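POC1 centriolar protein homolog A
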Amino acid sequence: EDPSLEKHFKGHRDAVTSVDFSCTKKQLASGSMDSCLMIWSMKPQMRAYRFVGHKDAVLCVQFSPSGHLVASGSRDKTVRLWIPSVKGESTVFKAHTGTVRSVHFSSDGQSLVTASDDKTIKVWTVHRQKFLFSLNQHINWVRCARFSPDGRLIVSSSDDKTVKLWDKTSRECIHSFCEHGGFVNHVDFHPSGNCIAAGGTDNTVKLWDVRMNRLLQHYQGNSVVNSLSFHPSGNYLVTASSDSTLKILDLLEGRLLYTLHGHQGPATCVAFSRDGDLFASGGSDEQVMVWKTNFDADYGEAVKPQKYGSSVDGTHGTGSEMDCGIHHKKTKTQDSSRTHEQQEEETSLANTLEHIIGQLDVLTQTVSILEQRLTLTEDKLKECLENQQKIIQNKTN
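Tokens:
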């Protein structure tokens, strides 16, 4: 089947800038130029939450791996960490001296990387939002920064037309990819961690092998690429473009599979769910759309050719195969020595650990919120005391 539009959410009052699913797919977060963060419930008849706190446009949102926190970055130069519940409580920290364009959690949920118009990338601890270090070699706005799946590398894209690869431990730039002919709006790691994809204002999507530092595939489109997301299988890539379309690229075949029309005006952001069954998109039309992927269950199999729009829309790939972890077929093997009971025990233990990590996230965030409130109370008390002292001094004088 072709991808199909499942839901569309209306509630933002300006262009949608960013979308992300929670790990369970029960919630979808979106940021907007209207300065709000929205948390949409995927269950019918459940109300959405509108989180107000940022003083200017919200340009990026992301759920933590456990799904118990949402990070957002804004033109007000701050980052907020929210608990995605009805209260909508958050902690805030001044992250940069310019607009915050990108926020991204490490896969263990312990670190956060942010990118900004102040030309820097910064890494923070999620616990207490402690600043760790800054990466400073870009010479223009940094649009996007992402951790590799194993957390050892960081990739960033910038208006200086480069994509840079950083070693998190040494904090050194280990390679600069300079093939883009315009601003690079978005970059991300392939699920294998062995290659990266970037799209930008030169209407192209490029994929590089990060081990060999060589260009693997190149797709030439007709419009600015604003955002992209890898399918968890690693075999597909979805892009959002200023010509209002979403495009799904088959990385095995090196070709365009689908062109999807839904948004009125530029499609600004796109993201697959963690299991790849759904993807969400946002646009300048203030709408958030949720699409069912409908790919063949065996993601390595060929998918039907596109039935939306024109045949290839001027898009082409260079090379039909990738050696960076894209698999031609998922083979289902089972270890006969492992019993069903052992598997159930392991699953139960994994679920329990995930629940504990999630609860720790919430506790950490609650402590941070209380600390911020105590600091505000202390500041107010100091101010009151200072005012009282001034009054006493004026009276004695």
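The chain has two domains: 4-294, 350-396.
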